[in-house]
């Protein structure tokens, strides 16, 4: 029996992870998925209940699970918290504790949604790229950091962008391996024109490519140009590998090509055999929280990635992915993708599609 730890978190997190639970229950009842689902408080909810966004108890349970699925974290009520007590700090600490350095963000445009993008349908139809974001290093973690008061009373804020050879090499390796299973192309994005870490990034990726992956087509692109190319011609990419900060930004941008941030799942993985952390890439959307209108598909698709990558059920991951596509083909739409369905009804549509896929 495998274990999935659900961290519903804040805002729309509890609603979307509730639909994951219903899908998992359906799979358990109908096709024999053996999965124990546990829950733990996380983010702002954990701060309110226990005084910290990530408690030692939740961290221990995450490390002991086979997969962890987070709903969302953050909200205006915690924006004034000290940095280490903000919900987002809980997420960064969890990623770090789980050592999930590789964040896979598939930017996939379901055919039924090609018209929902703000870009022309021909630009996004058939879009299928994979952003590989470094997740446990770079400027979100580098020391020194902080805000200090200067003698004249003004302040100075410091963040440090730092990467080592080993950190760059292991994320590049993930990108090259993935490319070999896809269209065999890797584009590496950095700012080697102005940043030392960018220069090292390009060097290390180039070296590794030469040594072990010369069969893969490697290109380099400055990250600002990559931002432009993503809206100009996103289909030129196959695997796009980049650092933590650029990956955060470029993945939100690329997600919008597919119609809605509410559609995009992600998987954060570390060493083989260690638990993976699965997260929709959208945030907690406080403006619609509790209204039952959030799109649960990013969370459900994150669960499909967990089935494939951490729970040993590639078959059920594929089947769930196909059920989402079928639900969309049948016209199921939440508000963010131009429809009227609520969170629960979208969950129902996926479950109905799963049921149909069972019949010969
Ligand atoms: C993401 C989010 C997080 C990040 C926040 C919530 C800490 O934006 O997963 O992209 O910056 O990594
Ligand atoms: Mg982000």
Sheet with most strands: 10 strands, mixed
CATH topology of the largest domain: Isopropylmalate Dehydrogenase
Order of strands in the sheet with most strands: 2-1-3-12-11-4-5-10-8-9
Question: How many domains would you count in the coordinates?
Answer: 2
Question: What would you give as the CATH superfamily of the largest domain?
Answer: Isopropylmalate Dehydrogenase
Distance between the termini: 28 Å
Into which percentage range does the β-strand content fall? 15-25%
Helix content: 40-55%
Shape: globular
Give the topology string: H per helix, E per strand: EHEHHEHEHEEEHEHEHEHEEHHH
Number of helices: 12
Total strand segments: 12
CATH class of the largest domain: Alpha Beta
Q: Unreliable segments (pLDDT under 50, ≥5 consecutive)?
A: none
Cofactors, ions and other ligands in the entry = 3-isopropylmalic acid, magnesium ion
CATH architecture of the largest domain: 3-Layer(aba) Sandwich
Task: Break the fold down into its secondary structure elements and pairings.
Elements (H helix, E strand, L loop, with lengths): L1 E8 L3 H19 L3 E5 L4 H7 L5 H9 L2 E6 L14 H12 L3 E7 L12 H4 L3 E7 L7 E8 L5 E6 L4 H17 L3 E6 L5 H17 L4 E6 H10 L6 E4 L1 H14 L9 E3 L6 E3 L18 H13 L4 H16 L13 H16 L2
Parallel strand pairs: 1-2, 1-3, 3-12, 5-10, 8-9, 8-10
Antiparallel strand pairs: 4-5, 4-11, 6-7, 11-12
The structure holds 3-isopropylmalic acid and magnesium ion.
